[in-house]
Amino acid sequence: MRGRPNLYTSYEDEQKILPTVTQRVTMGAFLLATVTVPFSVVPGLRFLGTPGWLQILNVMLVFLVAALGLNILIGFAGQVSLGHAFFMAVGAYTAAVLAGSPTQALWGLELPLWFALPIAGLAAAAVGIVVAPTAVRVRGLYLAIVTLGLVFIGAHIFRNWNQVTGVPELGRDWGPLQLALWDIDGPALRFDKDGDWFGVFVSAEGKTFLFMLVVAVGFVVLSKNLARSRLGRSFAAIRDRDIAAEVMGVSEVKAKTQAFAISSFYAGVGGALYATVVGALQPEIWNLFLSVEFVAIILIGGAGTTAGVVLGAIFVQTLPRIVENTTAFLEVQVETQGWFAPIADLIIRTDGADLGIVSTVNNGPGLSVAQANGLLFGLFIVLFLIFEPLGLYGVWLRIRNYWKGWPFTY
Amino acid sequence: MTTVVERPESPDISSGYPTVASLSYDWSKRVPDQVAMREKDFGIWKGYTWERVWELVHEAAHGLLALGVTKGDRVSIHSEDRPEWVVLDIATVAIRAITVGMYPTNPAAEVEYLLGDSGSIVHLAEDQEQVDKLLEGADGAQTVKHIIYVEPRGIRGYGDDRLMFWDDFLESGRRHMAENPSAVFDLMAAAEAGDLMTLVYTSGTTGPPKGAMLTNANAQFAMDLVVNVPGRTPDGIIPNSSDTILTYLPLCHVAERIFSTWTMVISGAMLNYAESIETVQENLREIQPTLFFAVPRIWEKMAAIVEIKSRDATRVKRLIFRGVMRLARSIGKDKIANGGSHTVKSRILYAVGYPLVFRALKERLGMRRVRWSATGAAPIAPEVIEFFTGIGVPIFELYGMTENSAVATLNFAGRMKLGTVGEAYPGIGLRIDEDTGEIQTKHPGVFQGYWNKPEKTAETMTSDGWLRTGDVGEWVDGTYVKIVDRIKDIIITAGGKNVSPSEIENSLKASPLIKEAMVVGDGRKFLAALIAIEFDVVGDWATRRQIAYTTYRDLSEKPEVIELVQSIVTSTNDKFSRVENIRKFRMIPKELDHEDGELTATQKLKRSAMVETFGDLVESMFT
Is the pTM of this model over 0.90? Predict the structure, then answer.
């Protein structure tokens, strides 16, 4: 029955991810615009096709995959975890051993990526299953502390198991980003070298972006699908009130184990991809700050919503670049005495004697750009938690509901 | 070798008079896979195809035969609107028995009276509540031989062996069908025009309800005129199988029967059963019906909701809404002056208001797809019609009563006149008695009399065979009928003036703050009124002014509220002559209710009961 948006004649109807034509068209256009990013064809988005931005986008997509996993745990199932970096590391090193090249000091099996990537996810999931039972015993803050413990245990292992992780503070090389059937010498698809695809030149970053995009979209669809499935509903039941959920026939142990397993799978794949995209990582990178960054993505984006995680990943990953660009812009303003010079002067200091919060002089007084970035980051988390607990998605909801309720408020 | 599978020959029912049953059967043969009705089940609107509907009707008809129901026996139905209601209704007609509908709100005493009066032998009680009402009676309604229930919850342990679950009833029907495959078709082929098909009990504002006897011919006449009369809809298309209807008023009432069941069987329109009367708004939004009938109470309630919600809206929304509503008033006035059709000016204004408010507002009300809607069964304030016309809902007032199968007058599209109930249907007899001013009708839709009450029937018919409607009317512009009031309700003051209370009452009720008003003053020096407030709206008003209140009674006795009502009364008085002015009023201290006997099942005031209950309030105004 056309033109009756609230009428559902079957459950399939009611559960559609994109129920209306408008939504389908919008999503199609968005995906199309995203796919063409490396080719710089969409006006206004051409700058994203530069290698620098593509690298940022690639890391963003990797973070998106891992954050989706944490969102399943925190947002869907309500289990607070600070151990996400640990699960990522498990995946990353599994992939490194499977796909990396062996040296005298390092293990490496040189297996193809299509094999290593899922195994990395499964290895992390297996660790998740082992950890899950503690979540049944402890809740909330205590669970956060237990998972925090994982990060420290992990730090110790990664520092000392050098056959796997490489030398401390240097790390090891990862296998190349390529899809080969088995033999690593004749890869069917290489994503880490510039080259032509069907006669069109694509940079290595562009190729990597397209690969990451396919993976990320796949995981987004999976996560969206999970939310509306029986499994997703059982997570939500556990999150909202575990005792009530058990009364309704949802097994707490089972649901929490599943949540940890799926979340860790996402983390494992995310970790493996992270290392592959970046190329080399020190064992120290898998620390508490990485975990916190993922919590930030979820909180800023909107916990419990897939669209929110996407928004959060975009926001958190582009913020440093925006801060950097803004600082550079303000610096130019001060130097050339442009229109914004008075404001710019208040914000940045270009020499030791100047007033301003952010310093562009190396080791000068005041905050460095990176510190300012961290400060803003913290500020955003605090502001979102206080004013918009649903995150960026909540902002969108407000806008949508304003028009949905038209001409009334409710 | 090829075998030709012969479709089983359709049983020949063509020799029988067309009934709601044979019409349903026709649809099941013509469009077996089209959805005939939908019911909301765990959030999903589940469809019943015509084939399935007929299958159910066929089984139920055999089930009734298996229970020993024969021609002319009464089958009573006491349930909210649901597929089983319509299925059993049609099945009963199929085997030439008579359906008796009861209001779900009927209290036990009334159920007992109705069962006794109609002599029903098979009774469908929806759930435990309705079964209890039946068993509560002094003799447990011993005349009823079988009780079918649809919702088994709580009934299992009752141990009354007359009780039978709906599914078991259908199962017994299937067994009976296997033994006598043509029994139902034979009865359908033997159907006659004069067969009684239903007893429709009048709501009984005075005295106990009376069962109006309607025949197949009456129903056919009503379908031909009320449903299929040309010129009914603005787009000129009579109801058809692409139409959607929300069924939510009690099906035992003649209006809902015509606008859902009978419209469905004659035109193939789809019925959607509302979950309950409380969810009508929500269900309307989901279904977005194309044909819609409502009693004035529902229309008034909708207008009141719009009023409240617009007041709660944010500043910008409120500003735009107020502006567009000004447009709507102008559109409403223009259209009504033009017989309900657009003028060039109103069309332009509507085009401005549509994207801004009307589209969304109609969507919210569930009126977005309505191509024809009507109000009837009680008088309505003209302001309400004006409002809905203004926002683009084609609404027409019509008039009819149970005793003439609701065939009397209708505001035709493009020829409507506000304040009247429209013009007589083509070819029917309708006159206004010169002495009493009573409206009388004569046509094939007029009923056969009241069940078991020949003396009441005689009172209702004139010596020359016209039906006395009991309504006082007058001609407007030659062909339009304006209803003044019920004859019995006309007030003659001590000064000898004749006053029609309903006009004054409707003017009062046009305010969203007032739910019910009853003007009194028969034989008194002046007029006075009992007034009941709309709890939600006045409660909202009070909250805004930070007036604390607890109960309905507390709220209605607040001096601020009385002052508010006084201002409405004063502005109403300005519209009427001095004799018709309300000098005093009192607030009714409780919410009126069917169960307590103050309202009929159709939410009409029972004036005699009101005077009895609130006699001291009335007296206090005149002493």
Answer: no
